[in-house]
Amino acid sequence: MAEVTASLVKALRDRTGAGMMDCKAALIETGGDMEQAVDWLRKKGLSKAAKKAERAATDGLVGAITNGKVGAIVEVNSETDFVARNAQFQELVRTITSLAPQAEGDLARLLAAPYPGKGAPVDEHVKAMVATIGENMSVRRTAAVSVGEGVVAEYVHNKVADGLGRIGVLVGLESSGDKAALSNLGRQIAMHIAAASPAAVRAEELDPVLVERERAVYTEQAKASGKSAEIAAKMVEGRLRKEFFQQVVLLQQTFLGAGGDGKATVEQVVKGAEKAVGAPIAIASFVRFGLGEGDKGGAEPGEAGAAGKA
Fold it and tell me: Rounded to two decimals, what is the model's pTM?
């Protein structure tokens, strides 16, 4: 059992917005487990917070690159934003990003790739740059997106230089239609993904653990309403479809990009674009990297790296 410290209580409060005493009670009840405490508060109706990714205490840059039917994305961490604005660091990230498509989302392969003009692999050159720049740095994760026919589009948010920023998105659109129109649509969808942070393209592709976690919260809330088991079960499934899926499933989210009317879903926007493109369109997959979010290593569904088939 983890010690319920004041700092742990504060962290739970910052994450959920619940009162200090409620946060303390939640941590005591769950043996100091942060994730269980979040769910405990939600089941009691004391927090409206959905699952929030824990943010690593890191800075740096996300780099994204595309070339027709392929794209890759990389996160390189530094200790401070000051270094992230350093021209040498930006050039380092830009060069590593340029090597990422050949790694095809494999971090170990990227780290072992020869760094241009240095006679050393990426991993060794990054270590050498630590001494030059004077701050710890690391290549944290990479991912890739490709399509058989169509385009891969990218978008970088909070951009500090071409292809470099704090949030990066790749989205693959499968279609035999006009490539320029597809690229424009892909960029608009990538911008939406940056803002809305979906977890999967379709509901069937959601992590079952994530779905069951939400189902457990809704079930506890339904039981507290005093409804019969049969009605409570229907309430739970209805809320999953109407609330949760519409929040985290890309095709069901309300489109936030340019030209959206605030009502149309991403699926409807994609369908509506098929006439201009001249062929059917399917969102093949996407990846979203937010600086400092998610687990170290590879892509994961949601804010750190979501992927799915449409």
Answer: 0.76
